[in-house]
Design goal:
homodimer, 4 strands, globular, 80 residues, alpha+beta, Gyrase A, domain 2
């Protein structure tokens, strides 16, 4: 249902590879805009041209919640 | 010599806290510009309003090198 996303412990994670570092940073900023709109923020890791997006819901005891799958779906719609 | 930076295993790391998520992403993009100029890239982690910058030199056997301390100094000059 969420291609590219994996359950890693109590998180949902996905990684994208871009042409370069700045493209990965622009993509991270796009994810940040989606997070701000939802007041639900993914952790973002940029390693050169790779961006990893990781979501969990702290208020749900660090479990994957509907907030996470909604954000994950929006991120995929932005980056896939 | 590099206030705020710590040796963590074979890396130099520092964390900054900003007013919000988008400010942290803008700061990360600034670090990315410094990295591109040097062709030496820090790993960047953004967790809500915190940005962690982590540098190592893979070609030096993942040790801290002069490239790392140069980048760290430039990042501090940008963000401190």
């Amino acid at each position: 249902e969420l291609p590219g996303w994996k359950h890693v412990r109590d998180r949902l994670e996905a990684t994208w590879t871009f042409d370069g570092h700045l493209q990965a940073l622009v993509a991270a900023t796009g994810v940040g805009l989606l997070s701000e709109r939802r007041n639900h923020h993914a952790d973002l890791t940029i390693a050169y041209n790779k961006l990893t997006v990781s979501v969990t819901t702290h208020s749900a005891g660090s479990k994957v919640s509907a907030k996470d799958t909604d954000l994950a779906r929006a991120v995929s719609a932005l980056l896939d």
